[in-house]
Amino acid sequence: MEKLSVLSLDQEGRGVARRDGKTIFIEGALPGEIVTCITRRSKPTYEIATVAAVVKASSARTTPRCVYFGVCGGCALQHLDVRAQVAAKQRVLEMSLWHIGRLKPEQILPAIHGPAWGYRHRARLSVRFVPKKGGALVGFHERHSSYVADMRSCEVMPPRISALIAPLRELVTALSIRSRLPQIEVAIGDAVDVLVVRVLETPTAADAALLRQFADRHSVHLYLQPRGPESAYPFHPRHDADLYYALPEFDLRMGFFPTEFTQVNHAVNQVLVRRAISLLDPQPGERVADFFCGLGNFSLAIARRGARVTGVEGSAVLVSRAAANAGVNGLSHMAEFTELDLYRLDAARLGALGPFERVLLDPPRDGAVELVKALPEPVPARIVYVSCSPDTLARDAAVLVNARGYRLSAAGVINMFPHTAHVESIALFDRNG
């Protein structure tokens, strides 16, 4: 079997090698290694393969902690030392900025990182009743498959939540609606743990009794979700859970609904907010915009620094949540929130909100190209861009630098999802002159 030298990692955490001008993406291989592999898919210009044997191992190779690694698709990099994971993600960010945007940041920011294990405070667990497996499976999908992994623990979730996987399997197996229950969502706050059970059929009285017993035994709040995310309601106990996370440095308490978007990694989020506010450097009395503001994660920290902030978000539900959080934290006089589709706008609609001295962006994976093109003159002096896709960040950065008169002052990675190939980053743009 042919030996290949692994040159780098791609954005999915696969080793990259080359043979006769053809790129080989090798799952399970690490940079600096010599490996043999088995091809799973072959195209004219590239191949997708899996490691068969590691002939020469990287010094950064480590033993995965999770016994399901390689089967479960939740993690891709447990075989790589955490520090090396961060370095690899930094290289992915720099390569995207250069190859897509032809940009190099003036400064590389220190990576933001935190706990490598037990960090995941949000998770969407798939559920499937499989009689051949002895009952219900609860967990993440298998790698490259729609099947649910046969797992009984998860090292990236807090131990108390990991310990619920086996009891959840037993619970679902015992329910009469076990084949009508496709998903369980985990939402962890600072004071309470919530499980949102997606039900396609109303539980029977016997089912309801089992669900209540489970919630009491394991000290969790159970919600049932019969339709979309907003249909979730407290089942047991029958009152809304006191779900929130704190940002102690800014004396903030951020409430959220179990199915609303929040950052997965609360410890890293605290550092991220600190970094973002430090880079943005809002001054008392300035007007600042927080686009894609969500429930106010950055907005209220900006307001706490004395700036007047306008949070803009496409979801009416999140706008309402952000306004409520402003009220709870005594910041309603410093923060206002507006619903606006940030993918369908122009300079006139944006101009009606401003002007703003500084802007923070935290868009989804699609990025914010329409927004950065539409920023009205005079453009803000400083922009901080928090990204969950290095490719769309690079695309938008090129617009800001080449068309809007900014320079890319700094950029760095955020290891929000250790052991995955997911790259989050933060970038600072200052107006030239």
CATH fold name of the largest domain: Rossmann fold
Give the N-to-C terminal Cα separation: 59 Å
CATH architecture of the largest domain: 3-Layer(aba) Sandwich
Q: What is the mean predicted local confidence, pLDDT?
A: 96
> How many strands, which pairing sense, and closed or not: the largest β-sheet?
8 strands, mixed
CATH superfamily annotation of the largest domain: Vaccinia Virus protein VP39
Low-confidence stretches: none
> Can you tell me the number of structural domains?
3
The number of helical segments is 10
Shape: flat
Strand tally, please?
A: 22
Structural class: alpha/beta
CATH class of the largest domain: Alpha Beta
Q: Over the alpha carbons, how many angstroms does the gyration radius reach?
A: 23 Å
Strand order of the largest sheet: 7-21-22-20-19-16-17-18
Strand content: 25-35%
Please give the share of residues in helix.
10-25%
